[in-house]
Amino acid sequence: MIIILIGYMGSGKSAVGKALAEVLEYEFIDLDQFIEEREGRSISKIFENQGEIYFRKAESKYLSLVLEKSENIVLAPGGGTPCYGDNLKLLKNHSGIHSFYLKASIKTLANRLLSETAKRPLIAHLTSEEQIVEFIGKHLFERSAFYSQTDRVLETDEKSIQDLVEQIVLALF
Ligand code: S3P
């Protein structure tokens, strides 16, 4: 079984994914980390040196590789992964996949991302809370059409990591 946690930057994909993988005794794969290891540099450096188009191509390539090679995993792709190329089609057509959208409000995301803009190239240029809120609002509006195609949508505001893990486990078994 492959469990995929979809969601915007800062939605908790990695934190929930790690905790879920531990409970299920599955391997946890963070796609950004996988890309960084294979490419030998950080996501920020890839954006800076080779640009976003190169990153998106690499992201698709490594997503296919992970799906081909893995059996029992919890996968946290990047926030943009389902929104580019054939990635969403790949996720929907691959057998044994269960996908969950970790849905968070603009306010929650902005609060979390405010102190983490430096390591996220798409928002690194934003300096005030107002700018971040406006950016996320527009971006999320474009992306929610992709995110909502997952098997289940989980509202995450006010929920702990443990609550979300329980909800996912209950939905799966
Ligand atoms: C991106 C999200 C990031 C990373 C890259 C682009 C996006 O991953 O893949 O900076 O397009 O939303 P996280 O969602 O893990 O921060």
Layout of helices and strands:
Blueprint: E1 2-6, H1 13-24, E2 27-30, H2 31-39, H3 43-69, E3 73-76, H4 87-93, E4 97-103, H5 106-113, H6 129-147, E5 152-155, H7 161-172
Parallel strand pairs: 1-3, 1-4, 2-3, 4-5
The site of shikimate-3-phosphate has 9 residues, from loops.
In short:
By secondary structure, the chain is α/β, with parallel strands linked by helices. The protein has helices at 13-24, 31-39, 43-69, 87-93, 106-113, 129-147, 161-172; strands spanning 2-6, 27-30, 73-76, 97-103, 152-155. Bound molecules: shikimate-3-phosphate.
Outline the structure in words.
By secondary structure, this protein is an alpha/beta fold. The protein has one domain (2-104, 147-172): 3-Layer(aba) Sandwich (Rossmann fold). Helix content is 54%, strand content 14%. The protein is built from seven helices and five strands. It has helices at residues 13-24, 31-39, 43-69, 87-93, 106-113, 129-147, 161-172, and strands at residues 2-6, 27-30, 73-76, 97-103, 152-155. Strands 2-3-1-4-5 form a five-stranded parallel beta sheet, sandwiched between helices. Helix 1 crosses helix 7 (161-172) and helix 5 packs across helix 6. The chain is globular, with a radius of gyration of 15 Å. The termini are close together. The mean pLDDT is 96. Bound molecules: shikimate-3-phosphate.
